[in-house]
Design goal:
Largest sheet: 2 strands, antiparallel
Distance between the termini: 14 Å
Number of strands: 2
Order of helices and strands: EEHHH
Number of domains: 2
Radius of gyration: 15 Å
Strand order of the largest sheet: 1-2
Strand content: 5-15%
Length: 85
């Protein structure tokens, strides 16, 4: 089951709808607790948004832990998701 779409802003000032399974949406909303709607879901240790280099480190660490032998990136995951969707 897909949740209502969330709006995201893409390059070129275009608006995109992001669809996800209801279970994922509920898990993300639970992580937010009672944070304001404009607060980041995944925050840094300083409680702000994650910077680009921090996201890269998370992806690289997760890739290694998962035993994926290829070099991957956030864009690689995005492309894979779009291809499979």
């Amino acid at each position: 089951m897909i949740s209502p779409s969330e709006t995201a802003f893409a390059k070129g000032d275009k608006t995109r709808s992001v669809l996800m399974p209801k279970s994922v949406w509920e898990s993300l909303m639970a992580l937010r607790d009672d944070a304001p709607l404009d607060a980041p879901v995944f925050s840094s240790r300083k409680k702000g948004h994650l910077c680009e280099s921090a996201v890269w480190r998370v992806v690289k660490t997760a890739t290694k832990r998962a035993g994926i032998p290829k070099e991957v990136s956030c864009h690689w995951f995005r492309h894979a998701h779009a291809s499979h969707a």
